[in-house]
Structures are given as structure tokens and as C-alpha cells.
Specification:
The complex is a heterodimer of chains A (114) and B (117). Chain A is mostly beta strands. Chain A has no helices and twelve strands. In chain A, 0% of the residues lie in helices and 53% in strands. Chain B is mostly beta strands and 117 residues long. Classes of the chains: A mainly beta (114), B mainly beta (117).
């Protein structure tokens, strides 16, 4: 069975500072990895995904994520945080073998302080 | 492109009544749609997977008779919460997978806030 772990429920960072939201995964085959963002009372918005290729994936709104196979991690990063980045972030994995549905992490609430 | 809509966005109903939530893929066909439930500040819990023209596959612990799912066309899936109770109050999110391939990307609707009084 596939699983995703987001070890931090809450991440606080000052505006302008770099941010990292952590994610580790477990799958039986090659992973398809995703990051989504959710604003209050809204659905999920796609940020970026890793399927294959370069380990550093660039996505929407200046976010990027680094795929690390040896550490089974897919941390989300941004060089300079904005107050408007404050939201709930979800990491998700889809096993390329079963290729059925996404499994989500528990979510990390990011708060960017002005 | 790849827009998924949900209707209604918010609904308040009395205990014992039924509520229908619609999920539409506006600019693509979706053979497979997913229904998720989200509790406050919690992750998304997959409730069921629906394939157009066939019965939905429910996750363990989800009552089939309580959460009726119909996927009658390639652009519409509905979730009906029957005999709703306050504990059914939640945020329901649908997702649609573009096309027929199970490798295709999922797109998410904006969610429906259900409050049962």
C-alpha cells in the first residue's frame, strides 16, 4: 500500500525567507508525486508534479520541489515566501503500478508572517 | 482548461433529509470521478471512485446506502447524502480524471460545505 507522510502540521516562516514543507512517501513501484494547495473553504489547486526526469520540479507561483529517491522525499520549497502563500499544503502520491487514485498526506498549514 | 465545478457550494439541511451534490467536468470528459470528504484542518479521505456507467467502488467504512453515487455521463457525477445527520456535516470535494487512462491527471472541484442541523 502506498502512503504519504507530512511530518509537520504547522510551518511558520517570515515573509521573504525561504520556506520548506516536508513530504516523504512509500510506494511499491515508481512514484507519481504531487503537491496541492488549499485555501480556506476552497478545493485543491495543483502546484506541481513529478513523474520522471529532472529531480527538481518547478511549479506554479514560484514553488518548486525536489525529488529524492534515496530518501523517498519530495519536499516543497520556495526561495522567498509571501504572506499570500499562507494556506494548507498537501503532498500526494500515486503508484505507477496501480495508477488508480491519489493518496494524500495529512496536510501542512503554512503561515507566512509579515 | 480542465475545470471541475460543484453545485451547490454550500448547503444547509435538516436532519433526516437527503442532499444531492453535483460534480461536473466542464471542458473535458471524465471516465472516472472521485469523491472525498474533508474534516476541518484534516486531509482528504477518499470515499468512493465512480466510473461512468458502472457502480461506484466505495472505500472501507463508507456506507454505500448512505452515500449514493451516480456517474451517469462522462461529465457528471452526483453524490446523494441520504437521511443526513449532523455527523455528516463536512466538506465534500470531487475530483475528475481527464480521459480514460488511469495515468491521467486528476482535477479537483471547489468543494461543497454541507451542514446538517
Amino acid at each position: 500500500a502506498q502512503s504519504v507522510a507530512q511530518p509537520e502540521d504547522q510551518v511558520n516562516v517570515a515573509e521573504g525567507n525561504p520556506l520548506t514543507v516536508k513530504c516523504t512517501y512509500s510506494v511499491s513501484g515508481n512514484p507519481y508525486l504531487f503537491w496541492y494547495v488549499q485555501y480556506p473553504n476552497r478545493g485543491l489547486q495543483f502546484l506541481l508534479k513529478y513523474i520522471t526526469g529532472d529531480n527538481l520540479v518547478k511549479g506554479s507561483y514560484g514553488f518548486e520541489a525536489e525529488f529524492n529517491k534515496s530518501q523517498t522525499s519530495f519536499h516543497l520549497k520556495k526561495p522567498s515566501a509571501l504572506v499570500s502563500d499562507s494556506a494548507l499544503y498537501f503532498c500526494a502520491v500515486r503508484d505507477s503500478g496501480s495508477a488508480r487514485q491519489l493518496t494524500f498526506g495529512s496536510g501542512t498549514q503554512l503561515t507566512v508572517l509579515p | 482548461g480542465a475545470v471541475v465545478s460543484q453545485h451547490p457550494s454550500r448547503v444547509i439541511c435538516k436532519s433526516g433529509t437527503s442532499v444531492k451534490i453535483e460534480c461536473r467536468s466542464l471542458d473535458f470528459q471524465a471516465t472516472t470521478m472521485f469523491w472525498y470528504r474533508q474534516f476541518p484542518k484534516k486531509s482528504l479521505m477518499l470515499m468512493a471512485t465512480s466510473n461512468e456507467g458502472s457502480k461506484a467502488t466505495y472505500e472501507q467504512g463508507v456506507e454505500k446506502d448512505k452515500f449514493l453515487i451516480n456517474h451517469a455521463s462522462l461529465t457528471l457525477s452526483t453524490l446523494t447524502v441520504t437521511s443526513a445527520h449532523p455527523e455528516d456535516s463536512s466538506f465534500y470535494i470531487c475530483s475528475a480524471r481527464r480521459g480514460a487512462s488511469s495515468y491521467n491527471e486528476q482535477f479537483f472541484g471547489p468543494g461543497t460545505r454541507l451542514t446538517v442541523l
